[in-house]
Write a structure and sequence with these properties.
The chain has 386 residues and is α+β, with helices and mostly antiparallel strands. It contains 11 helices and 13 strands. It has a domain of 197 residues: Ribosomal Protein S5, domain 2, CATH 3.30.230. Helix 2 crosses helix 3, helix 3 crosses helix 4 and helix 6 packs across helix 8. The site of alpha-D-galactopyranose has 10 residues, from helix 5.
């Protein structure tokens, strides 16, 4: 939607007063490699997308907080001095969580009108929630002159999602959405939060995101289950080696898993985390050297590990990833995000993009009965004022 239309919608929904609202944008993200490693203090390699969330926002002179969206039917009015979580889990919990974090830091906020509008497919694992959180945090920081750094806003957003929304996510999504740079991927160490960006020079190749359009039903409970399994693995390892998290182990330590973890499932989860961290390290170097086919190979290995060891893929994601690999011009394909549904990310030679979409679309429908959607994303900057 054009910015002028967004402004018009804002004036249609709220009072048509003379003072102008301010507009902000926060992207979604796609993770190229490094899945389910962030909450294990490991490595991730995401980038920010051109799809995202707009926030049109204006201060009020009273204490009313008006929250509206062009994406869902639900809107809300609250008193800013006494905000309440929505118990049906409506989208307003994302901005409310951020507001609550600002109050926890003793930052004074007043009444506001907020209009959100996003084009990230909902529930597709492209971080629409982190995008709403970050756009709110960034806007409040500017509107109320709070002087917080982008990194602090990233941490606030993750904390809001953990404690207010109740989803125990790691830091990758908020970080990618907050710190993304145009045409670059972010290599992030989730333990130290040190990072550097790597130019995403794909030359004759193109990123394609394929959406299973399968809603990620049990994602939250399965996600938390995986987190506990990783904690369990740390407990087993601690019988011999003192570690705080699995990412302290490297590929040379894999033998420890066989020696110290009697439970086959827990052993597999730990193996995924260790091998995935290793793949991210390799992938970053490979991308820096411009070897796209080799990068694709690591993406395939990542998907295999997420399927066999971490068990977070499922029929739909597997259909997309494995059928993609059979198509000429594809160098790699893997699930991205939490899994169980959502999207895959593939790298395809530019000459084969159309045939990829056609062939994969058909194969996917014949296997699952569902229709996939395809996006050719651009990699863009992180959260910003428009
Ligand atoms: C979700 C979470 C992230 C990360 C991924 C899996 O997107 O929000 O923190 O754990 O799953 O890599």
């Amino acid at each position: 939607m054009k910015l002028s239309q967004l402004r018009e919608e804002f004036f249609r929904i709220f009072d048509n007063r003379t003072d102008e609202p301010v507009i902000f944008f926060s992207p979604g993200r796609v993770n190229l490699i490094g899945e389910h490693t962030d909450y294990n203090n490991g490595f991730v390699f995401p980038c920010a997308l051109n799809y995202g969330t707009y926030l049109v926002i204006r201060k009020r002179n009273d204490n009313q907080l008006l929250m509206n969206t062009l994406n869902f039917d639900f809107s809300d009015i609250q008193n800013i001095d006494n905000i309440n979580k929505n118990i049906s889990g409506e989208w307003v919990n994302y901005p409310l969580g951020i507001i609550s974090e600002f109050f926890d830091r003793k930052i004074q906020l007043g009444g506001m009108e907020m209009l959100f509008s996003g084009d990230i497919p909902n529930g597709a694992g492209l971080s629409s929630s982190a995008s709403i959180e970050m756009v709110t945090a960034y806007a409040l920081n500017i509107l109320y002159d709070a002087g917080l750094s982008n990194l602090e806003l990233v941490k606030i957003s993750q904390h809001a999602e953990n404690s207010f929304v109740g989803m125990n996510c790691g830091i990758m999504d908020q970080f990618a959405v907050g710190m993304g740079e145009k045409d670059k991927a972010i290599f992030l160490n989730c333990d130290t939060l040190n990072y550097h960006t790597v130019p995403l020079e794909l030359n004759h190749y193109q990123l394609i995101i394929s959406n299973t359009n399968k809603r990620r039903g049990l994602t939250d409970s399965k996600y938390n289950e995986r987190r506990s399994e990783c904690e369990k693995a740390v407990e087993y390892i601690n019988k011999k080696e003192s570690i705080k998290h699995l990412s302290q182990l490297s590929i040379q330590d894999l033998h420890l898993l066989d020696e110290l973890i009697p439970d086959e499932i827990i052993r597999k989860r730990a193996r995924h985390v260790i091998t995935e961290n290793n793949r991210v390290l390799q992938a970053v170097k490979i991308l820096e050297n411009g070897d796209i086919p080799q990068f694709g190979k690591l993406m395939n290995e990542s998907h295999d590990s997420l399927k066999d060891d971490y068990e977070v893929t499922g029929k739909e994601l597997d259909a997309l990833a494995y059928e993609a690999r059979k198509i000429e011009g594809t160098v790699g394909s893997r699930m991205t995000g939490a899994g169980f549904g959502g999207c895959t990310v593939s790298i395809v030679h530019e000459n084969y993009v159309d045939s990829f979409i056609e062939k994969l679309g058909k194969a996917y429908t014949s296997i699952t009965g569902l229709k996939a959607d395809f996006y050719k994303p651009d990699i863009e900057d992180g959260v910003r004022q428009i």
